[in-house]
Amino acid sequence: MKEKDFLLAILITFIWGVNFSVIKLGLTSLDPFILSGMRFLLCSLPLIFFIKKPNVSMKYIITYGLLFGVGLWGIVSLGIYFGVSAGMASLILQFSAFFTVILAGLFLKEEIDILKKFAFAIAILGLTLIISVTDGSVTFIGLVLILVAALSLSFTNIIVKKAGTKNLFSFMVWASIFSPLPLFVLAFFTQGEIVFTSFFEHLDNTAIFSILFQVYPTTLFGYWVWNNLLHKYPVSSVAPISLLVPIFGLMGSYFIFHEQIGLIKILASFLIVSALVVNSFGEKIYLKLYGEK
């Protein structure tokens, strides 16, 4: 990979990691569902009027929009709102990689080999350590919500594979139009009409920054660059860099919110990142060392 592209990939993982803290900043002013709804409204408008619809079935576009906007980021925002720190949310969300393996086995009939099972076991140890954290950065309901979001992210991975689209930027823009309405409906049912009548009253500079950061650097720019890199280089060259996301997530939470990073969190991070490495590259490493599986 060229040095310029490598640095660009690092920048994207940094943006994605820090984004969890930016979400938390937005939650100081706005309801989590309103915050997420505004993100995806601006991801789609006005771009949808200028970008051609991807050549895939609408059922994939709609389902992706609901799962990615509501099931993933709406629930992540809710999980952070209910007490999971930004850093821990970025780490827990990595469980989507293991859920994706399970879903691929169920829906795509892909084999779940012994190395992937081993990786999942390591990740469970990491999750056990996260549950034992007592510094207030993890709550039970928040943890459950982030795991639900991770499961939603796994389903979006399956949808992308089933849809077979290569133009993921167009796919993202068109899918995003189906996220805001259900998010706004959830905001109404959970908080009432006050979240709408007082919206501009709470829309301070911090909330505006949070929304714009999530829309442009994180979603539109981030996914556009990342998908271009995936087309330009082998997946094996690009994918490992994404392992930096939870590291930047924890660092962002430390510097912005002064989250404590103790031994337990370091061990949990090490276990989960190690599990991701085994899950993604264990077979290649094994074959290189032993020549056969």
UniProtKB/TrEMBL annotation:
<feature type="transmembrane region" description="Helical">
    <location>
        <begin position="88"/>
        <end position="108"/>
    </location>
</feature>
<keyword id="KW-0812">Transmembrane</keyword>
<feature type="domain" description="EamA">
    <location>
        <begin position="141"/>
        <end position="280"/>
    </location>
</feature>
<feature type="transmembrane region" description="Helical">
    <location>
        <begin position="207"/>
        <end position="226"/>
    </location>
</feature>
<keyword id="KW-0472">Membrane</keyword>
<feature type="transmembrane region" description="Helical">
    <location>
        <begin position="63"/>
        <end position="82"/>
    </location>
</feature>
<feature type="transmembrane region" description="Helical">
    <location>
        <begin position="238"/>
        <end position="257"/>
    </location>
</feature>
<feature type="transmembrane region" description="Helical">
    <location>
        <begin position="7"/>
        <end position="27"/>
    </location>
</feature>
<feature type="transmembrane region" description="Helical">
    <location>
        <begin position="263"/>
        <end position="282"/>
    </location>
</feature>
<protein>
    <recommendedName>
        <fullName>EamA domain-containing protein</fullName>
    </recommendedName>
</protein>
<dbReference type="InterPro" id="IPR037185">
    <property type="entry name" value="EmrE-like"/>
</dbReference>
<dbReference type="InterPro" id="IPR000620">
    <property type="entry name" value="EamA_dom"/>
</dbReference>
<feature type="transmembrane region" description="Helical">
    <location>
        <begin position="140"/>
        <end position="160"/>
    </location>
</feature>
<feature type="transmembrane region" description="Helical">
    <location>
        <begin position="167"/>
        <end position="187"/>
    </location>
</feature>
<feature type="domain" description="EamA">
    <location>
        <begin position="7"/>
        <end position="131"/>
    </location>
</feature>
<keyword id="KW-1133">Transmembrane helix</keyword>
<feature type="transmembrane region" description="Helical">
    <location>
        <begin position="33"/>
        <end position="51"/>
    </location>
</feature>
<dbReference type="InterPro" id="IPR050638">
    <property type="entry name" value="AA-Vitamin_Transporters"/>
</dbReference>
<dbReference type="GO" id="GO:0016020">
    <property type="term" value="C:membrane"/>
</dbReference>
<feature type="transmembrane region" description="Helical">
    <location>
        <begin position="115"/>
        <end position="134"/>
    </location>
</feature>
<dbReference type="Pfam" id="PF00892">
    <property type="entry name" value="EamA"/>
</dbReference>
